[in-house]
Design goal:
The protein is mainly alpha-helical. It has 6 helices and 2 strands; from the N terminus they run H-H-H-H-E-E-H-H.
């Protein structure tokens, strides 16, 4: 419950920035993952973004219809798909990143850079221990 409360408090700060650009939280997570990792298969995006595979299919379909991602089939295996960002999404990343970075700085000022670093370290250690 504590982690969920912390997540929600953080999202209260970031959600308005994301939705102001017409994006859902899930869409932003997909865009961010693809921006950081490059083109990926849907199953890898699901893992990175913690979105179930059935939900991911719908998210990617809507994102494709909105011109946020493109899908390309592998030439050697037509069952596999590679998802990439469109220039529109790359532009959104550049635009949103400034606002998101400002919010991260505001959080650091509010709670202290040392607390933020401790939280990152603790969550990284927790995730590593659970894997």
């Amino acid at each position: 419950m504590l982690l969920l409360r912390a997540r929600e408090k953080m999202m209260e700060r970031f959600r308005p920035l994301i939705t102001a650009h017409g994006l859902t939280e899930q869409q932003w997570r997909v865009i961010r993952a693809l921006d950081e990792k490059g083109p990926l298969e849907p199953r890898h995006i699901s893992d990175l973004c913690t979105i179930s595979s059935p939900s991911m299919a719908g998210v990617l379909s809507r994102m494709e219809a909105l011109g946020l991602v493109t899908k390309a089939r592998f030439t050697d295996d037509q069952r596999r798909v590679l998802v990439s960002l469109t220039p529109k999404s790359v532009g959104l990343v550049r635009l949103l990143s400034k606002d998101l970075e400002a919010e991260y700085r505001a959080i650091e000022q509010a709670v202290g850079a040392d607390v933020v670093a401790q939280v990152y370290g603790a969550v990284d250690a927790l995730l590593a221990g659970l894997d």
